[in-house]
Amino acid sequence: MYPKTGYERTPPVDRWRQGAPAATLALAPSSRRRGGDHYKQRHDEGKALISIILPAKNEAAALATLLPVLRAAQAEAEIIVVNDGSTDSTGKVCDDAGVRTVTQPYSMGNGAAIKRGARAAGGDILVFLDADGQHDPADIRLLLTRLEQGYDMVVGARDWAGQAGVGRGVANTVYNALSSWITGFAVLDLTSGFRAVRTDKFREFLHLLPNGFSYPTTITMAFFRSAYAVAYVPLKVQQRVGKSHIKPLRDGIRFLLIIFKIATLYSPLKLFVPTSALFFVLGSANYLYTFLHNGRLTNMSTLMWSAAVIVFLIGLISEQITNLTYRK
Questions:
Q1: H-assigned helices in 74-164
Q2: Do 46 and 146 belong together in one domain?
Q3: Is the domain of 251 the same as that of 308?
Q4: How far apart are the C-alpha atoms of 163 and 238, rounded to whole Å?
Q5: SS3 call for 132
Q6: What is the pLDDT of residues 47-64, one digit of tens each?
Q7: Is 314 domain-assigned?
Q8: Residue 15 and which of 127, 224, 228, 287 are 20 to 30 A apart at CA?
Q9: Alpha-carbon gap, residue 188 to 156, rounded angstroms
């Protein structure tokens, strides 16, 4: 179904950044930029069209190495780099590589770049790839092969060694465990930005995606909620080129909010009912203690019981809102 790329002859994953021989990476003039006529011809032939989308902000150094290797690995794919207000030579690197560029006049965020790239893509399948050089373009074929098996989205899952620091690793482990409990499925990497997905299904949820860094969480939970099949493929990743755009202090609160987003995007009552029950039990325990020792009901018990009712009602409202969100 998918075209063979011949990328098996390029260097293995742990050496791909070093580059293939010049003859392998050299782009013929006719293949440097895939125009609309070429893409339309492939669509008329009934072949699955692949659009590879890379959100990029000041990633010129990584893209200079990544784009030629990516073109060699996926010669027939549409490659779109969404330039998120870069102040370096990202735009020039993309032009030199002959890939399509969607330029944002100012930085709108990683999620915004994903949405603009998804709207601009002409493929039947979207592949999202970080522009920082962490992922080997050869692994795209692994995702596409799994997608052919009937899945709607396939995600490249990082192991502990692929996490950007201990703090990020611990946070992602918590996210994975929580989302696995809520959905009932094994979520191996909730926040991975490397994924292949069917275009029509992905575009159903564009209005839900945030403009910031938590778009993978949102789209993953949306797919599970809508009963779209999701699979994970364990992959090895490299250390990123350059500095991460995630700031621990600035984004710490955002990542905490992901915990609540995980629950509210799938089944709010799974979070609110246990919380309500906890307040009720604490209130009852406090009442039992004060009644046995002082023979009276205290304000603290009443406050906790009230909190239990309020949290439960909020959960019911959230559940109804979630149902309306996924009314399709």
A1: 90-97, 110-120, 140-147
A2: yes
A3: no
A4: 10
A5: coil
A6: 669 999 999 999 999 999
A7: yes
A8: 127
A9: 9
Taking only the tens place, the pLDDT of each residue in 235-280 is 988 765 555 555 555 555 666 677 777 777 778 888 899 999 999 9
Which structure tokens are listed for 190? 């909730």
Q: Which two tokens mark 42?
A: 């492939």
**Are 312 and 215 in a shared domain?**
no
From CA 241, how far away is CA 215, in angstroms rounded?
22
Rounded (5°) CA angle 56-62-65: 125
Terminal-to-terminal C-alpha distance of the chain: 29
Neighbouring C-alpha atoms within 13 Å toward the C-beta of 245: 18
What pTM value is reported for the model?
Answer: 0.73
Q: Token pair for residue 115? A: 């949405």
Answer whether residue 171 is part of any domain.
yes
> In a 3-state reduction of DSSP, which class is residue 313?
helix
Residue type, 194: F
